[in-house]
Amino acid sequence: EDQVTQSPEALRLQEGESSSLNCSYTVSGLRGLFWYRQDPGKGPEFLFTLYSAGEEKEKERLKATLTKKESFLHITAPKPEDSATYLCAVPDSNYQLIWGAGTKLIIKP
Amino acid sequence: KAGVTQTPRYLIKTRGQQVTLSCSPISGHRSVSWYQQTPGQGLQFLFEYFSETQRNKGNFPGRFSGRQFSNSRSEMNVSTLELGDSALYLCASSPRQGEETQYFGPGTRLLVL
């Protein structure tokens, strides 16, 4: 069964304290892995797409990496405005996205 | 380019009623997907429409239905509302069917009393 698992469920960091979020997946044939950011009361905002193991993408303080079994979202020197829930998703064989439950990130000033 | 818009933003209904939610995709996007988001279940796929045809459907009862118009705008309908239907309903658009990069609207918050 296709599945996406994110850890930890919640992460509290001090401003400037770098860390990583994990997204592990089991899917028959990876067709991409997507990272989104969601602020309270809003729809998810697209961040990155990764397609092959070893691929990396960066945006400001965020860097996403991909292996054959998991993806990491590295956050370097985060700021309070980086606080949000980060979601990852992978397409199933019908190209419909299967979503993880998300990691709620809180950055304290 | 304007983003995905959804109306209404908030809605309160009572059990047994029905509700219709509306979504206008990004201009030029022809695929519209609907999701239900709850704290317990996370984001769950409802259905996808492309060229006025439902292309994929998630595991939801027949009370959940939708349609797409020739201008790509979409509506979803929930009949005989249940308390468990309280959720954030999200619409996402993409240029083509099966295009995995989806762009989400702000959602409609539905509360069923």
The CA-CA distance between the termini of chain B, in Å, is 37 Å
Low-confidence stretches of chain A: none
Largest sheet of chain A: 6 strands, mixed
Strand-residue proportion of chain A: over 45%
- What is the overall silhouette of chain B? globular
Portion in beta strands of chain B: over 45%
Mean pLDDT of chain B: 93
Measured as a percent range, the helix fraction of chain B is: under 10%
User: What's the order of the H and E elements of chain B?
Assistant: EEEEEEEEEEE
- Oligomeric state of this protein: heterodimer
How many strand elements of chain A?
11
**Number of helical regions of chain A:** 0
Helix share bin of chain A: under 10%
Return the average pLDDT of chain A rounded to an integer.
Answer: 94
Q: Could you describe the largest sheet of chain B, including whether it forms a barrel? A: 7 strands, mixed
Gyration radius of chain B, in Å: 13 Å
- The ordered H/E elements of chain A are EEEEEEEEEEE
The pair of chains with the biggest contact is: A-B, 22 and 21 residues
Uncertain regions spanning at least 5 consecutive residues of chain B: none
Question: Which structural class best describes the helix and strand composition of chain A?
Answer: mainly beta
Radius of gyration of chain A, rounded? 13 Å
Would you give an account of this structure?
- The complex is a heterodimer of chains A (109) and B (113).
- The relative contact order of chain A is 0.33.
- Chain A has strands at residues 3-7, 10-14, 19-26, 33-38, 45-50, 56-59, 62-66, 70-75, 84-91, 97-99, 103-108.
- Chain A is an all-beta fold and 109 residues long.
- In chain A, the strands form two sheets. In chain A, strands 2, 4, 5, 9, 10 and 11 form a six-stranded mixed β-sheet that branches. In chain A, strands 1-3-8-7-6 form a five-stranded antiparallel β-sheet, with no helix packed on it.
- The N and C termini of chain A lie far apart (41 Å).
- In chain A, strand 7 (62-66) and strand 8 form a beta hairpin.
- With 113 residues, chain B is mainly β.
- Helices cover 0% and strands 53% of the residues of chain B.
- Chain B is built from no helices and eleven strands.
- Chain B has strands at 5-7, 10-13, 19-24, 31-38, 42-50, 53-57, 64-68, 74-78, 87-94, 103-104, 108-112.
- In chain B, the strands form two sheets. In chain B, strands 2, 4, 5, 6, 9, 10 and 11 form a seven-stranded mixed β-sheet that branches. In chain B, strands 1-3-8-7 form a four-stranded antiparallel β-sheet, with no helix packed on it.
- In chain B, strand 5 and strand 6 (53-57) form a beta hairpin.
- The mean pLDDT of chain B is 93.
- The chains are: A mainly beta (109), B mainly beta (113).
- Chains A and B meet through strand 5 and strand 9 of A and strand 5 and strand 10 of B.
